Amino acid sequence: MHYFPVGIGLATLFAAILLGLLLLLQIGLLSHAYSALGLDPRVATLALFGSLLGSYINLPLLHLPEERIVSREVVEIFGVPFLAPVTADWRGTILAINVGGAVIPILLSFYLLMRYDLWGFGALATAIVAFVVHRLATPVPGMGISVPTFAPPLLAAVVALALSRRFAAPLAYIGGSLGVLIGADLFNLGLLRSLGAPVASIGGAGTFDGIFLTGVIAVLLASLVANR
Predict the structure, then answer these.
(1) How many alpha carbons lie under 13 Å from residue 74 in its C-beta half-sphere?
(2) Residues 6 or more apart from 184 whose CB is under 8 A from it?
(3) Is residue 39 pLDDT above 60, yes or no?
(4) CA angle 75, 79, 80 (to 5 degrees)
(5) I need a surface site. Which of 2, 71, 106, 186 has the fewest CB within 10 A?
(6) For 108-129, what is each residue's pLDDT tens digit?
(7) Is the model's pLDDT at 97 over the cut of 70?
(8) Which helix (H) or strand (E) holds 102?
(9) Contact 130, 179 (CB under 8 A)
(10) Quick one: pLDDT at residue 135?
(11) Residues facing residue 83 across a β-bridge
(12) C-alpha distances in angstroms, 153 versus 25, 89, 159, 209, 218?
């Protein structure tokens, strides 16, 4: 299942973000943030590339019976136009998981949990972010669940710093990534059948931008403040 769920404007913005991140890695600014995670800058570059490129790939999990399917429709999420997947004679909703917005963040989060033994703090940070994000999440017909783009990374940074300045950076990534996936997507699985979306992707359109920026903004803020 391959489709890019955003218009040309947002796609161009994502490409510009990637180029900017690569520049920051080269000059060492973003390297500082990811060194707080225990990641080599080259690994961080691969993770960023994988997250952006992986947003194009959705791995199907389940087929949910659906009463109505929305196709060939432009849906606005907080003023940003998204393209609902085009379907023909498609009965039901496919529940999928997005590679860039879910698989990679989950794997990296569990790596950080094990590396720094942050199971307690990590669970607490995730629970707080998940609760707030769930309250902010908005069901969007034809698309799925959406959250404000900058709320998760800023919230994750604040929560991480409050819990532990020493491990603020990994906690920001763990809490921000897993908190969005749980609060926005998993807690709203029961609404998917009523949204008329042909594909409902965990970590996909509507939440991917928040998760991706969490991996950049939250970690950068947390690591910079924690090392002052």
Answers:
(1) 5
(2) 133, 134, 137, 145, 146, 147, 206, 207, 210
(3) yes
(4) 65
(5) 2
(6) 999 999 999 999 999 999 999 9
(7) yes
(8) none
(9) yes
(10) 92
(11) 74
(12) 19, 39, 10, 10, 5
